[in-house]
Amino acid sequence: MAAMGQYRNIVILTGAGISAESGIDTFRSAGGWWENHRVEDVATPEAFARDPRLVQRFYDMRRAAIQEKLPNPAHEALARLDAAWTSKLLIVTQNVDDLHERAGARRLIHMHGEHLKAWCTLCDIRHPWRGPLLDNLPCPVCGGHALRPDVVWFGEMPYRMGEIYAALGKADLFVSIGTSGAVYPAAGFVQNAVELGARTLELNLERSQGSRLFHESRLGPASVIVPQWVDELLA
Ligand code: NAD
To answer: Whose CB among 120, 151, 153, 191 lies 3.0–4.6 Å from 139's, allowing a Cys bridge?
Structure first.
């Protein structure tokens, strides 16, 4: 894969694997949240309606945990690329942690929402939020009691899809990092990119489910292979 002059518009999709070496469990890792909770119990609107305290407690724990973690060299390399790349670039993350922005990335979309925000479903305002939601605190704007984690649950529409597809439509390079390719619509982005003529590259610990759709796969820990790739691109 080569050099900067060859590409103008880059779209990068990241998943839980890029944060694994920062100590945040991926979906399917041993000890990950799948181990202790079924997705149906914590990550669906039905679960929240059925047992809001269980869901709030679960996200309160995750929200507290990510604040203890630090970006790793893969987040830092993408932030370096974002700063240096003078043409179009968009990082689309499925992650709800804030490690990309803490590393310094600016051109970033959180398609599955953010742990560090609370969404008032009464007045529809999203608030920066670092503490727990379990106590059913009032919305700082409308005073209502309908705050929930600003995280996209299974069965809900991911955020900013129009912007993401517009960027994919112009991309000549699509790179997928640390994602299993199991969760749609993100898992389908590579297909879109290929159909629109972009070069596609995956950087992952192991081959993802859509691996055959990529022109190139590089396997290894994100903290090693992402900085290597960024160095090559900027060389
Ligand atoms: P996933 O757990 O399904 O897959 C993670 C992928 O990362 C796997 O293919 C795995 O092989 C790879 N991986 C693991 N360690 C790696 C490493 N050190 N370097 C490179 N790759 C590594 O995660 P997903 O594909 O992102 O999709 C599942 C959903 O999980 C997303 O919707 C996301 O919102 C959610 N999630 C987010 C976080 C987070 O915010 N950090 C954590 C867990 C789950």
So the answer is: 120
